[in-house]
Amino acid sequence: MALRTAEQYVTDLKKLKKEIYMFGEKLDDWTEHPIIKASINAQKVGFELAQLEEYQDVMTMESTLIDQKVNRYVQLHTNVDDLIKRLFLNFEVQPRIGSCHGTRCSGTHVINVLYAVTYDMDKSLGTDYHERFKRWLKMIQSGDLTCTLAATDVGGDRSKRVSEQIDPDLYTHIVERKQDGIVIRGAKMYMSASPAAEWHVIMSPGAYKENEKDYSIACAIPADSKGVIYIHEWPAVNAARIQEDADIDLGVSTYGVHGSAMIILDDVFVPYEHVFLCGETQFGRQIGSLTGRIQRTAATACKVGTLDVMAGAAALAAEANGLNWKKVPHIRDKVTRIVTLAAQCKGCVVGASAMAEEHPSGIFIPDLITANSAKLLEAEASIEASKLLIDVAGGLTGTAPSERDLKNPTTRKYLEKYLKANPDVSVENRMRTMRLCEYLCGVSSTLQVQAIHTGVSPEGQKMTIANAVDMDRLKSYAKKLANIWD
After folding, report:
1. Which residues of the chain have pLDDT under 50?
2. φ, ψ (nearest 5 deg) of residue 356
3. Where would you tag: which of 9, 123, 220, 353 has the fewest CB atoms within 10 A of its CB?
4. Closest C-alpha to 148, from 256, 303, 32, 42
5. Residues 6+ apart with CB under 8 A from 114
6. What pTM was estimated for this model as a whole?
């Protein structure tokens, strides 16, 4: 198969018997639930673009493993061009959906990380993890399957190590080693669009001690494995999506959902064929480092697309308010500022990939300092762009009446009268524009949380940069210029 259509993806997804809970209820026909369906719609875009001739170079590539054309979401980064085109995939997909497509996006990260780390493990320890992983990846590529990274543990008491927690299950760990596999228990948090995935890669990056080796794991599980339970996110903004016939009020109605879930792993059995790290604590830190470098570039590329949409929405809002965005100086400055913020992030993240280093396995990894700097820049840019968008669009971004008021004959006549601004823009379209702005600036979405925390918080990026920079070399340049010789 190698390349599925969007329809084939949805058909296959419906076959999975997932146990999903949301807002206090167990979902039966979960693929049709309006909130999860929005996440599924976001995944479909990647399948749809891969079928179009004009996007073949960005969305697809020839696999180095199965000798077939595959979607770039399941690619290995075997050169700098692969890394850069993977970013351009995000640049194409993100403006079309305005939301997270984390299912397949994070899958790319973990595929490349484990390809590199299992290679190192086999060379160092004489294990067969790398060959196991390649067999699994060939299966994923051949079926064009969706896999997602599940890495973040619930964490418990942040002041204590994993082995010091009052409940050992607060970090995912091995509870039993059987002859044919392992049994794992725990929970994973913040797993973007995880209900829309067909496979999960369970991974616990970090520096573990020898007595914590049961926490050092990496394995792959079918998304409907026995013992896998999903408790879907419920940010307050989701409430609008369960209203009957909701459309305008959602801002982005077809997509627009982060769709993360807490994944409960209630004694899940994993055959050794799908276990890629099992207690080798010395490789936990490497997994974390490589994951961060790849994930932070992709996350930045994702938000570049969002910033581009924010610029378009700001111009659209100005026009809906009766103003030509190019002719009003302060609005022109704000809109072009959003454009330049997007361009700065784009340049930085492409630079991180252009300066990538080759791992002995043949995988290319983005430059450490530049990748983290790009993500830090993106978090700051997203916050600034949100302020600018609100400033341009005006107070309706937080005070617009409901679409139900627009449909109610009693109130509609007043809204049609008093919300009219530009004679060429209908009141309905002005309301749609303002709801989109409300969504993009984070008033009715989780976009700003994603912008700040995807791929670890800004403080994590700053710590990584501080630890990686060769400050002695930089100080030596400063001393020479100042003629300090000591």
Report:
1. none
2. -60, 155
3. 123
4. 42
5. 133, 201, 203, 218, 276, 277, 287
6. 0.92
